[in-house]
Amino acid sequence: MTDKPFTVKFRSNHAQQTVEFTGNLIINHIEEILQKVKKKIDSSKTLCVKITEPENIDLTFIQMVISLQKTWQKNGHDITIETTIKEDIKLILNNSGFNLFLN
Questions:
Q1: Do residues 50 and 11 make contact, with C-beta atoms less than 8 angstroms apart?
Q2: Treating both helix axes as pointing N-terminal to C-terminal, what angle do 59-74 and 30-40 enclose, rounded to 10 degrees?
Q3: Reduced to 3 states, what is the DSSP secondary structure of residue 35?
Q4: Under 8 Å CB-to-CB from 43, ≥6 apart: which residues?
Q5: Model confidence over 6-29: pLDDT tens digits?
Q6: 20 domain residue, yes or no
Q7: Which residues contact residue 4 at a Cβ distance below 8 angstroms, ignoring those fewer than 6 apart?
Q8: Residue 3 carries which DSSP code?
Q9: Taking a C-beta distance cutoff of 8 angstroms, is the pair 81, 65 a contact?
């Protein structure tokens, strides 16, 4: 049995849910990540997205998070994005214009 190159953890209570991502958040795994998210999250609750020390992150993952953000805002629900990202990845994201991941 092999370990997954990424993890997706979910926590929820009556009004809020949190989804935390770590590992390799890249195109090779985005379909599986997206399927996990679609199965578990409840669009009627506030959402907190946590991105914690990813090994790698690419545009496909960023697009998924932006899509979640737009969906939650369109439906009138709050969404927050929290990140703990290594300096080299922060620099790449900042230079690419994805500052929303640097909060």
A1: no
A2: 20
A3: helix
A4: 71, 72, 75, 77
A5: 999 999 998 899 999 999 999 999
A6: no
A7: 23, 29
A8: P
A9: yes
**Look-up: residue for tokens 């929303």?**
100
**Is 96 contained in some domain?**
yes
Q: How many CB atoms lie within 10 A of CB 103?
A: 8
Residue with tokens 């370990």: 3
Residue 37's domain spans which residues?
29-102
Q: What is the pTM of this model?
A: 0.89
16 occurs within a structural domain:
no
SS3 category, 74: helix
Question: Residue 82's closest CA among 12, 19, 23, 6?
Answer: 19
Looking at the structure of the chain, the number of domains it has is: 1
